[in-house]
Amino acid sequence: MCGIVGYVGFRQAYPIIIKGLKRLEYRGYDSAGIALMNGGLNVYKKKGKVSELENSLSETDLQSTIGIGHTRWATHGEPNDINAHPHYSANENLAIIHNGIIENYSTLKVELERKGHVFHSATDSEVFVHLIEEIYIKLKCDLDEAVRLAMTQVVGAYAIVVMDKNSPNQLIAARKGSPLVVGVGKDEFFLASDATPIIEYTNEVVYLNDFEIATIKDGKLSITNIHAQDQTPFIQTLEMELESIEKGGFEHFMLKEIFEQPRSIKDCLRGRISAETGHLVLGGLREYMNKILVTDRIIILGCGTSWHAGLVAEYIFEEFTRIPVEVEYASEFRYRNPIIKEGDLVIVISQSGETADSLAALELAKSKGAIIFGVCNVVGSSIPRATHAGAYTHAGPEIGVASTKAFTAQVTVLTLMALVIASKKGTISEAKLRQLLFELESIPEKVEKALLLNDQIKYLAQEFKDSSNFLYLGRGYNFPVALEGALKLKEISYIHAEGYPAAEMKHGPIALIDEEMPVVFIATNDSSYEKVISNIQEVKARKGRVIAVVSEGDDKIKTMADYVIEVPQAHEALMPLIAVIPLQLLSYHIAVMRGCNVDQPRNLAKSVTVE
Ligand code: G6P
């Protein structure tokens, strides 16, 4: 995790870095720091949010046209001023910012201590800069060479930027396993964990690859790899719009992103389907289609909300393609010697494209000969670059830590994927396919309609904001929606919530039900509707308070539930795209009413680049 920013050029570095760090706070926000060349190499750092660092510097002269900054999510060493980045080397001539984990830092630290290095923090990152310094001084080489040699000794994941007091026009950056983007302007360069701090200055970027070192010196960028071979920088032009990373009048990014869903789903479908002509393509699948058609097993990997999207996909794939599907937490899969055969299709789902567990699970499956397909949102991120093929979700930047529009976009892409495979395999009839394409095209409008429930849900939030537990229940396609609803509430309001298959309630959770327990049923009109009604009655018989998400016009559940939320009906396979909307809104409003930091909930980070 952690966000890093660097600047060297002709402008004042401080405002660029502070603004960039605020954009990257989704990556971590327990402490922040900056290093500038304002009469020497000076480091300023502080526990807390970037704004706290900013406030503490209001009286300081921060003139410098070069600088680096960091916003932290603690791994080694508690969040405090000392453990915040940047870290100095022993002679304070170098400063480093680091995102990632140095796994062998304690061995390196002991060796360096033996050589006289004194460490001030409890971090692994400080060891990296001392190691670079040790090599730099001993070999009297260039700083980029010292970084390269240090990389040969360091085990773990990192994106780093190093500044040298004696080279005021130079930044050295390197990556292995953590993302790093170089923004290329006219006579100026930017470095950042993703493109959001860069986009308003230039749309020309270079995504650094693993084991590459970028040297920016005297207005020039050069890239070498760990074997000291020159690499030609591959400059890409970004299409991101500035307004897509700003709040645009909404109080929080999360609310903006919830309301963006009609558009993000439309963007995700754009060019891929036309119900009228029967057009259905997913470009990324083409090259591997022959292999996919003979695969007899699909494994879906993800974490958090992406794993929930995978569960929805399991139902959809099995229903329409008749290929057996297993959905696994990437973190479990990678450590349990899983059985993967050559030709298995492995789908890795990740909004950020950077989740360390998902990336490692992908590499494992790839090494065993599986076909790896990525479903990611962030263009150019590590997971899509490591897959054989994939489809972007095109949801636009998601900044709120709790995932919303990424979920619906993932489910949309996975649905398209299942339908493409099913139609090629012949496991779906022409008529059924057409019907589903029509249904898919109508989803943005139905989501728009579901968003009109906002005021009703605000009222519900008022009623339930002081509850200390929630149960979310659903069956079939709505079971993963129950899990996702519970996760949203936990993440941002800190209320304990559990998602469960409604039928499993009687095997345990039913014991929790009393008049204090709100139970959210996702009870839309589908093949398990009647069964869910029985489950609602079981809860009512034990005095639970039932909030039911039902299909528009439902009269039956109205007579049993305490509150009903009516959403537009679609084919049951597509209902998760609609039924999740009121649950996102409910958790949002409850969290706001409880005074929680919705966009940056405690202890979490959006991009989890540590194991
Ligand atoms: C973190 C985020 C979640 C997200 C999960 C997986 O835990 O807080 O919102 O679902 O990571 O992230 P990914 O980027 O791989 O989808």
How would you sum up this structure, described in words?
This protein is an alpha/beta fold. It has 18 helices and 27 strands. Strands 3-2-4-1-10-9-11-15 form an eight-stranded antiparallel beta sheet, with helices on one face. A seven-stranded antiparallel beta sheet has the order 5-6-7-8-12-13-14, with helices on one face. Helix 3 packs across helix 4 (125-139), helix 7 packs parallel to helix 13 (405-425) and helix 16 (478-493) packs parallel to helix 18. The longest helix is centred in the C-terminal third of the chain and has 22 residues, at 430-451. 6-O-phosphono-alpha-D-glucopyranose (G6P) is lined by residues 303-306, 350-352, 355, 358, 401-403, 604, 606, 608. Residues 303-306, 350-352, 355, 358, 401-403, 604, 606, 608 line the site of 6-O-phosphono-alpha-D-glucopyranose.
